[in-house]
Amino acid sequence: MKNFAFVLLLTLLFSCDFAPGSYPYATKYEISLSETELAERIADFKTNNPEYLPPQALGFEDGRRTEADHWYHLYFKNPKENQVMKTWIRKKSETKTTFAFIGTKDYSNTTTKWKLINKDYEHSENEEVLKEFEEIILSRLDIQQHMKGR
Fold it and tell me: According to the UniProt entry, where is the signal peptide (predicted)?
């Protein structure tokens, strides 16, 4: 019985460090649009707002990594900071798509790593980054009427 209690205690203490899936910390939004329609809206947004395009020299390209990839990766430059925001979209059904915010990276320093949302930020800073993403990206995509919040 002592072993069971000990194992249970360890599981509870460390369970927050184990998360399922490839992007366990991402903040996800459900969008009532097909994946194709959402991808087209995002592409149009980037065409009409080039200040949101990451510098080409950084090599961040939108799209799937392979044909079998489930995620359509998208990168946005935060026009307020030297920062890239990493996101993805994934088909949930014929009429619904998941739009996920994964993290940020400071591109003024080439050695910085991605800071993951809901993991690498303190709670208050995490909320600020999420709010900024929602204000400068989501609100400008004209999808609010199709969006189910985080």
Answer: 1-19
pLDDT digits (tens, 9 = 90+) for 84-116: 999 999 999 999 999 999 999 998 887 889 999
- Whole-structure pTM value: 0.83
Q: Is 5 within a domain?
A: no
CA 70/CA 119 separation, integer angstroms: 23
Domain annotation covers residue 33: yes
pLDDT 10s digits, 47-84: 999 999 999 888 999 999 998 899 999 999 999 989 99
| Ramachandran assignment for 63, one of left (phi > 0), alpha (psi -120 to 50 degrees), beta (any other) | left
Domain limits at 104? 23-148
